[in-house]
Amino acid sequence: MRIVLVGPPGAGKGTQAAYLAKNLSIPHISTGDLFRANISQGTDLGKQARAYMDAGQLVPDEVTIGMAKDRMAQPDAVNGFLLDGFPRNVGQAEALDEMLRSASLKLDAVLDLEVPEDEVVKRIAGRRICRNDSAHVFHVTYNPPETEGVCDACGGELYQRDDDSEETVRTRLEVYHTQTEPIIDYYRAQGLVVTISALGKVTDVTERAMEALKSSDEG
User: Fold this and answer.
1) Where, by residue number, does ATP bind (predicted)?
2) DSSP state of 192
3) pTM of this prediction?
4) 208 an active-site residue?
5) Biggest CA-to-CA distance, the chain
């Protein structure tokens, strides 16, 4: 299957993408991984991206599109892929459609993870990270430490990242509504959108997603 995963920040896209890709035996292709791989390998696209990032500028769509095109051409993506973070806007969605058309391929589904805005804010703004080891992550509501402000694993101080503050989260949501959400209508016009609730346990959401994708494929 060829799937695009969309949803607001805090919807659990990365977590669900990993589970779904494993269950479907297709590669999980995330924008973050594309950028890291191209920059670390010193590809031409990676050098271009680095130049824009070092200058504090947004990486142009054509660079991101080029990275995605190269990755989707790899042997492990021949039978499908799950795109996470790409396309990020309608222009990128149109470019993806053109890429697939030129290879006589098409998307099978666009999985839309739906989460109420207040829940997104609660999920992200409640995160606390250990200063000693960023892999130790807690949540004031869903996974609180035994002692407030102290990491259970190593006793380090827990803190809230600047980009996890409520104000920053709401700004990120506004960017999502303005830039990314329109691709849902774009794909809905093609009959590709499958919307599921991303509330509840991770395993429940994965099960919900798999069922929705199965129904979409059969349809």
Assistant:
1) 10-15, 127, 137-138, 200
2) -
3) 0.89
4) no
5) 57
Answer for the pair 7, 199: CB distance below 8 angstroms, yes or no.
Answer: no
Q: List the structure tokens of 56.
A: 């504090």
User: Which listed residue (22, 131, 161, 214) is catalytic?
Assistant: 161
Tell me whether residue 32 is annotated as binding.
no
**Is 88 assigned a catalytic role?**
yes
Write down the pLDDT at residue 219.
Answer: 64
As averages over each run of 10 residues, the pLDDT of the chain (219 residues) reads 96 94 96 94 96 92 96 95 96 96 96 96 96 95 96 96 93 94 97 96 95 84
Looking at residue 157, the DSSP 8-state letter turns out to be: B
Residue 57 annotated in ligand binding: yes
- What letter does residue 165 receive in the DSSP assignment? S
The question of whether 13 is a catalytic residue gets the answer yes
Strands 81-84 and 28-30: parallel
Catalytic residue among 13, 71, 123, 128: 13
Structural domains in the chain, CATH included, are: 2-27+74-218 (3.40.50.300)
On the question of a cis peptide bond just before residue 144, with omega within 30 degrees of 0, the verdict is: no
